[in-house]
Amino acid sequence: MTDILEKSQARQRLRSLSEALDSGALKQVARILNGGLSPSDIAHLLESSPPRQRALLWNLVDKDLEGEVLQYLSDDIRGYFLSQLNAQELADIIEDFESDDLADLLQQLPDTVIQEVLETMDEQDRQRVEEVLSYPEDTAGGLMNTDTITVRPDISIDVVLRYLRRHRTLPPMTDSLIVVSRRDDFIGMLPITKMLVSNPASTVREVMDTDIEPIPVSLSDTKVATLFERYDLISAPVVNEEGRLLGRITIDDVVDVIREDADHSLMSMAGLDEDEDTFAPVWKTTRRRAVWLGINLITALTASAVIGLFEDTIAKVVALAVLMPIVASMGGIAGSQTLTLVIRGMAVGQISGANVGWLLNREFLSGILNGLLWAAVVAGAAMLWFQDVMIGAIIAAALVINLVAAALVGTVLPLFLKSRNIDPALAGSVILTTVTDVVGFMAFLGLATIFYA
Amino acid sequence: MTDILEKSQARQRLRSLSEALDSGALKQVARILNGGLSPSDIAHLLESSPPRQRALLWNLVDKDLEGEVLQYLSDDIRGYFLSQLNAQELADIIEDFESDDLADLLQQLPDTVIQEVLETMDEQDRQRVEEVLSYPEDTAGGLMNTDTITVRPDISIDVVLRYLRRHRTLPPMTDSLIVVSRRDDFIGMLPITKMLVSNPASTVREVMDTDIEPIPVSLSDTKVATLFERYDLISAPVVNEEGRLLGRITIDDVVDVIREDADHSLMSMAGLDEDEDTFAPVWKTTRRRAVWLGINLITALTASAVIGLFEDTIAKVVALAVLMPIVASMGGIAGSQTLTLVIRGMAVGQISGANVGWLLNREFLSGILNGLLWAAVVAGAAMLWFQDVMIGAIIAAALVINLVAAALVGTVLPLFLKSRNIDPALAGSVILTTVTDVVGFMAFLGLATIFYA
């Protein structure tokens, strides 16, 4: 019973699907796909399939489901399917898209195709899409929908209810109506639940909430997500510089931003894209990884060059070669802890100029303390191993130096990178490793050269 | 204008707050805190403050705001503040808590304190809380609220609307009413927006949605989050094994789960807790980091032990010491790319027994291709550097071996760890590094020993 849903829905259908696929019973596959699964389930299934199976499945999806399935796919995979459609097929697919989803999708296409698609649309739809397209994808403008239901402040709740009843459906995620002036200036929000418990004779002005600050159209999507999380919003109004209502943002799109932002740090620290297709084909995977390995080879060669400076010392005392990776690796581990903590703290907006001094001081002290602790342990081990007090003292000093360097660089580096508009999650770990390798080998082999010379 | 909100709200208030704090104008601080800021803003401010400032601020927060602020704090910091309250103070604070938030909070307290607090509550509230407390925190049961509004299927929409109007307010995030039988069995959902556009004379049965599968109370919170993301839910009903309605889960709590799950992978891979307090004091930070450094020291010592086996070879050919970190580090980088990809794929439910074979094959091929590419580059560099063809050939072979090993271990290890109920994000990177270090040094120095012997 633990996993009713999992067993009954996903797993069982997946199993029968994959059995049907294996046996080549394509009609049966198509029936399961288009019969029982929601568009988001189909998208998840496609994302969980290796390339050949994925192409097969996509061909079996009903034409009128394709558009919705595309909306749930990650950029990488969606881009691939889109590139195989012509302008007319695209136009058919996107008929029912909301303006923000459509803009997202169009942004992945070449400019000429965008123009072709826009020309197939009617005037009103085209204007709505062009409006959203005019804002960068990663801002409130790129995230918003234009399908708002607005009301004036001076009418009664009863009139609003009758006005709503004239609609066939309300836009998804409508938890509030937006109150605007005659000039479309934002005035307040009218939560539907509040309306339902109010006296129908009261006016909108009496019932509405005015303590909600509308979202400026140019606010970054990450900041939009912070506002939604902090104030538990379901939908929020978006305004231009003059305070005129442009559209609204809904929680479903914000959840995607939260997921992507969180994934971004994790994936970037390993040199991967947050939108990386888990089942990308070999050649694509190899090409992307090659770039990252090449960048990291520079770090490794730099470390080797540093070691090369001390060849003579190593030739004299081979034990140094045995022990030197310890200093570099402990520095890397300590540094990446600090780096990860600071990157996360920056992402959630906890770290600013006001408290970075305290943080640097804490990391410095903690680096010294852990340096001393582990220096003692490693020194003891080294002395016992090589029966040499000198080598213990040298590795102890090098460890303390490297752990302190790691703490300081781990704190300052991400802040510096961000101020230079370089992604700390992507560049941070490579640069940090270079520093801890260079400092580690330099301190250990340098000290050894002095004392064994 | 880019950052209206940021400048006007957070930053400006933060700046005046920190100026007031610095100048010791505590009355002014208290006025800003309790006047203009929302409980979630105050919580964020506390999380962004070093310990001394944090304690000072907490003391200035109005008594009747404390409860709400606590709800927005992360476990680590909340636990600290809670530990300083006695049972009566606790009871005062938690009066207005929702049952799921209260259960979360109580779970952080010692059992004796929980009992004391429960005794101060009235019968009905106590039962509600004890019910939620009886489910593990990381399941649907631990996540749900019991404040549902339920209706019967056979009444008319008009009656429902009149029934709602008798409420003073509706529970937050009420986008749907839950339709249940006389025995409280779940039947369907009645979206409020759908009700508003329906004929008031129709019955609930005619208007309600029945294609929604209720969430089993024991489903894991991660799976609950997947359902919310996949079906764009705002609230969802929770049922027991017999299908009886127990409560409902709302998107605001699910967003927290999504954030925590995503943070978990990032933080665990660096040996940090996802709930880690960015501004934890020195001694706490040092202690936690020490454990992780100690574990990683075992990896480093293992690597040293492997190198130690080949001391004689290194003494003969010192160039080996210079080049050996390249082999180990490239293996580590390649492995951590695969590991991160697989951990992310597992977290979003893309990877299963059905496709892991394909994945392993792709990683193997990609490992060989990148191995050959970078082996050629590194071999060329090594030959030029040391004017020795043999050393180039040896490092090339070792690199290919280590990149392939990294690809295989990076794919299989997280799946194996998960099957053993060990957290792959936490244990994965340490074990992987051990493997790539050992294989790297062993392959490179081992081959060198054979050919230079």
Given the structure, what is the number of helices of chain A? 22
- What's the number of structural domains of chain A? 3
| Global shape of chain A | globular
The CATH class of the largest domain in chain A turns out to be Mainly Alpha
What name does the CATH topology of the largest domain in chain A carry?
Tetracycline Repressor, domain 2
| Helix-strand string of chain A | HHHHHHHHHHHEHEEHHEHEEHHHHHHH
The CATH architecture of the largest domain in chain A comes to Orthogonal Bundle
Largest sheet of chain A: 3 strands, mixed
Function (chains A, B): Acts as a magnesium transporter.
Family (chains A, B): Belongs to the SLC41A transporter family.
GO molecular function (chains A, B): magnesium ion transmembrane transporter activity; metal ion binding
Keywords (chains A, B): CBS domain, Cell membrane, Magnesium, Membrane, Metal-binding, Transmembrane, Transmembrane helix, Transport
Question: Can you tell me about this structure?
Answer:
In chain A, helix 19 runs antiparallel to helix 22 and helix 21 packs antiparallel against helix 22. Helix content of chain A is 68%, strand content 6%. The first copy, chain A, folds into three domains: 140 residues, MgtE N-terminal fold; 120 residues, CBS-domain (Roll); 171 residues, Tetracycline Repressor, domain 2. Chain A is built from 22 helices and six strands. The N terminus of chain A is likely disordered. In chain A, the strands form two sheets. In chain A, strands 1-2-3 form a three-stranded mixed β-sheet. Chain A has a three-stranded mixed β-sheet with strand order 4-5-6. In chain A, helix 12 links the parallel strand 1 and strand 2. Chain A is globular, with a radius of gyration of 29 Å. Chain A has 453 residues and is mainly α. The longest helix of chain A has 34 residues. The interface between A and B is large, with 132 and 132 residues.
